[in-house]
Design brief:
- With about 240 residues, this protein is α/β, with parallel strands linked by helices.
- It has a single domain, classed as Phosphoglycerate mutase-like (Rossmann fold).
- The protein is about 25% helix and about 15% strand.
- β2, α3 and β3 form a beta-alpha-beta unit.
- α2 crosses α3 and α5 crosses α6.
- The radius of gyration is 17 Å and the shape is globular.
């Protein structure tokens, strides 16, 4: 099939939040339940998020999604703040974007009202209750269950954004792996590689209208874990061994 026949339905950008205190492996002793379960960005993480926002400052998104954990909303805020006039103006919080087993079971998370006071640009994804939890507790879930959660998120997005829409999803390293597997039709229980996601790394996946993709393939991985927005300030980032 010729390139001229390609019809893009969705450009999906899967992004990990900026660096947090948890990523540094620091003991969380003395932290409040909120700060232990819902860690904030470090100063470096905040700077990474700002550089991420600059990267997309001339690239309008139709929607920017984030998990209901503060580090993801903080990072997404820096994208929203720098969007061009025709870009996304709000962050859509989707409760199913939470990290894999990322919080203690007894931690219920912020309410939407509490989160809205911290991040005024957020809205709640369609189909969720403002009075309900905005995070998901998934500790102990199997890979199959995590994949089903990722498929639910992708179905939500793909049913709403078509005709060449551009959507950013700011979430977490482990859960982004399941989004990656789901988008590419991979079974995480059979795959023997880890795509890995560094802080503010960007993965671009394009979905074509059925039957119009290049080489008759309707999903294309354009790039994975791209960190080009950080290289000027952190030239060694991504070159040294780094597995958190």
């Amino acid at each position: 099939m010729s390139d001229a026949a390609n019809v893009i339905e969705l450009e999906l950008y899967i992004i990990r939040h900026g660096q947090t205190y948890g990523n540094l492996g620091k003991a969380m002793e003395g932290f409040s339940d909120l700060d232990r379960n819902d860690v904030l960005l470090t100063d470096k993480g905040q700077h990474q998020a700002e550089k991420l926002g600059e990267r997309f400052s001339n690239y309008p998104f139709d929607a920017v999604y984030a998990s209901g954990l503060r580090r993801a909303m903080q990072t997404a805020t820096e994208i929203i703040k720098r969007q061009p006039e025709n870009g996304a103006e709000n962050i859509i919080v989707h409760p199913l974007l939470s990290e894999v087993g990322g919080v203690e079971e007894e931690y219920s998370g912020l309410t939407f009202t509490q989160a809205e006071k911290m991040f005024p640009s957020i809205t709640l994804a369609e189909g969720f209750d403002r009075n309900g939890r905005i995070i998901s507790f998934t500790k102990g879930w199997s890979d199959k269950e995590q994949l089903a959660r990722a498929e639910n998120v992708l179905s939500h997005i793909r049913s709403r954004y078509k005709n060449g829409a551009r959507v950013a999803v700011v979430a977490h390293a482990a859960f982004n792996t399941f989004l990656f597997h789901s988008a590419l039709g991979l079974d995480p229980e059979k795959v023997i590689f880890d795509p890995h996601f560094l802080n503010t790394g960007v993965t671009k996946i394009v979905f074509f209208r059925e039957g119009t993709g290049r080489y008759n393939i309707d999903v294309q991985l354009v790039y994975q874990n791209d960190l080009s927005h950080l290289y000027a300030d952190y030239p060694d980032y991504g070159l040294e061994p780094c597995y958190f």
